[in-house]
Amino acid sequence: MPTPSQKPEEFDAAFESIEQQLSLFWRRSRAVSHAISRSLHPEVEPGAYGLLMILLREGPLRVTELAALIGIGKPSVSRQIALLEQLGLVVKEDDPDDRRAQRVTLSPSGLAEVEELKRRRLSFFRDALGSWDLADLSSLAGYFSRVNDALATAGRRRSEALKHAQEGPGASPAPPDDDSFE
Questions:
Q1: pTM for the predicted model, two decimal places
Q2: What is the spatial distance between Cα 67 and Cα 176, in angstroms, rounded to a whole number?
Q3: DSSP secondary structure string, 86-130?
Q4: Contact by Cβ (8 Å): 52, 106
Q5: How far, in Å, CA of 72 to CA of 35, rounded?
Q6: Rounded to whole angstroms, how far apart are CA atoms 51 and 16?
Q7: pLDDT level of residue 174 (50, 70, 90 thresholds)
Q8: In terms of Cα–Cα distance, which of 148, 147, 126 is closest to 137?
Q9: Which of 142, 147, 182 minimizes the C-alpha distance to 14?
Q10: 139 membership: H or E segment, kind and range
Q11: CA atoms within 13 A on the CB side of 11
Q12: In angstroms, how far is CA 173 from the centroid of its own chain?
């Protein structure tokens, strides 16, 4: 909600500008990811780079956890993981917490490949943004973090409100859905 000092039309105009710039950033960044992902194999989708980076950062995860982290359906993630497994970049292992489930992890060659992809991606962005002051880059990262936190919080509130409305009056509120809008 805009602060009292903001007029709704000014807030709307500022948000539309942010939305346009984020959309442009997303498309250009995705194009870079697409080119990098295709260098692994022609059938690898751009989202595969994100999956590999999550596995690098988080370690072994179930397919459902991966899908929740990137906000796409389990079938899409399963298809990408199957291709990455065929390419030898990931392996499936038994989940020590539930032997009926499997977790996906980077293979040794997958780890080496991800490190190389990460190096190439950073090189691209270092070339593109290398003239920026480090304080500006840090501020931008902080703003992105604030936006993502605010969107996750608003998404959880909306999800809770929808669940509560579906349960009807007098029902106790549903527990928060931590995967909403993240």
A1: 0.67
A2: 18
A3: HTTSEEEEEETTEEEEEEEEE-HHHHHHHHHHHHHHHHHHHHHHT
A4: yes
A5: 21
A6: 30
A7: very low
A8: 126
A9: 147
A10: helix 134-167
A11: 8
A12: 28
**Contact between 88 and 134 (Cβ < 8 Å):** no
CA 5 to chain centre: 33
Q: Which residue has tokens 């298809």? A: 79
Strand partners, 90: 106
Token output for 94: 């038994």
Secondary structure letter of residue 172 according to DSSP: P
Phi, psi for 126 (deg, rounded to 5): -65, -40
**Which residues, 6+ apart, have CB-to-CB distance to 182 below 8 Å?**
68, 69, 71, 152, 155
Helix extents (H) in 3-97: 8-40, 47-58, 63-70, 74-86
CA distance 158 to 150: 12
Euclidean distance between the first and the last CA atom of the chain, given in angstroms as a whole number? 20
* pLDDT tens digits, one per residue of 58-111: 999 999 999 988 888 899 899 999 999 999 999 999 888 888 889 999 999 999
